[in-house]
Amino acid sequence: MLFIDLCIQGLIQGAIYALIALGLTLVYGLLRILHVAHAALFTLGGYIGVVVTNGSGSFLLALVTAMLIVGIVGMASYRVIYKPLLNRMPLIALIASIGVFIASEELFRIFFGAYGLSYDTPPLKGQIEILPGIPLSHARILVVVLAVGLLSGIGWMAVHTRMGVATRATVVDPEMASSSGVNVETIRYTTFFIGSAFAGAAGVMVSLLNNLVEPTMGAVPSYKALAIIVLGGLGSVRGALIASLALGIIESFGTIYAGNFLDRDSIAFAFLIMILMIRPQGLLVRG
Q1: Which residues pair with 137 in a beta bridge?
Q2: How many separate domains does the chain show?
Q3: Where do the TM regions start and end (predicted)?
Q4: Closest Cα partner for 207 from 101, 108, 73?
Q5: Which pairs with CB-CB distance under 8 Å and at least 24 residues apart come from 264-272?
Q6: Structural domain that includes position 19
Q7: Reduced 3-state DSSP string for 192-240
Q8: Residue 135 above 70 pLDDT?
Q9: Which of the residues 57, 83, 126, 229 has an alpha carbon 20 to 30 A from that of 238?
Q10: What is the pLDDT of residues 187-238, one digit of tens each?
Q11: Crossing angle for the helix pair 2-31 and 38-56, nearest 10 degrees?
Q12: Is the dihedral of CA 196, 199, 203, 205 positive or negative?
């Protein structure tokens, strides 16, 4: 039963990583920029989730509101931060993104306080026994259902819609896509909205599981997400998803079998470094 329980916990954590890493992967695929400020959007989603739930009593409203607002903020970040720098060296955009992330932590501290926020009445506290001896909270079930639904939806859109086909064409060859009538700017704004909304959803889920949102909440997940997209193969959506789930499972098992001398984050980074030493190009090529 321990093995099954650890697998379930690992998949839940991996699903959260996947929601965060997807936005980074999409942005890198389109612009070849490491979108470090994505971590700030993850934290913003967590804060919106707590504030709206406490104010309205509706967690569903909080989730939808967080995804919508964070998606819009993501589009604004493209317009304000990245678009003016597209013709400059990628390092400049990376430095600007890091600066925005650091500044956002201070803004969260100013507006919401240094000690974080919690739910007045944590939602979805109930549990069900999915297998004999393995209870699972409603919150964790929601994380899995939400992640599967969102990721399946984006996968379906990429294959079966004009927007999805246009996005893939833009990733492969932006100039050719533009000459074929694809509005590249619309694709970029849409991609930032979707990726940012997913990060906002992940922030809400983490705030729900931990019953806490704090200004630095996005730091460690963002570092892991950056490592995940490198491990998966820069720009590869499938690679990022595989790497996310693998990391979640390794962390889950590692806390039991290696927790006496390594903490959870150390286990994750040790695994990522080991894999990249063996396969530095990542698990999958971009696609």
Answers
A1: 127
A2: 1
A3: 12-31, 36-53, 59-81, 93-117, 137-159, 192-213, 225-249, 261-278
A4: 108
A5: 265/220, 265/224, 268/224, 268/227, 269/224, 269/227, 271/246, 271/247, 272/224, 272/227, 272/228, 272/231, 272/247
A6: 8-217
A7: HHHHHHHHHHHHHHHHHHHCCECCCCCHHHHHHHHHHHHHHCCCCHHHH
A8: yes
A9: 83
A10: 889 999 999 999 999 999 999 999 999 999 988 887 788 778 878 776 677 8
A11: 120
A12: positive
Residue written as token pair 């400020």: 37
Q: Which helix (H) or strand (E) holds 266?
A: helix 264-278
The DSSP-derived string for 7-56 is HHHHHHHHHHHHHHHHHHHHHHHHH----TTHHHHHHHHHHHHHHHHHHH
Does residue 258 sit within a domain?
no
Nearest CA-CA partner of 22 in 41, 48, 5: 41
| pTM (global) more than 0.85 | yes
| Three-state SS at 274 | helix
Q: Which of 166, 192, 24, 11 is nearest to 94 (CA)?
A: 24
**Is 229 within the bounds of a domain?**
no
> What confidence tens digit (pLDDT) does each residue in 233-253 have?
766 778 888 888 888 888 888
Half-sphere exposure of residue 250: CA atoms within 13 angstroms, side-chain side: 21
Q: Give the C-alpha separation, 137 to 215, whole Å.
A: 26
Q: Are 192 and 78 in contact (CB under 8 A)?
A: yes
Helix (H, G, I), strand (E, B) or coil at 65: helix
Q: For residue 46, give both structure tokens.
A: 């967590």
Q: How many residues in the chain?
A: 287
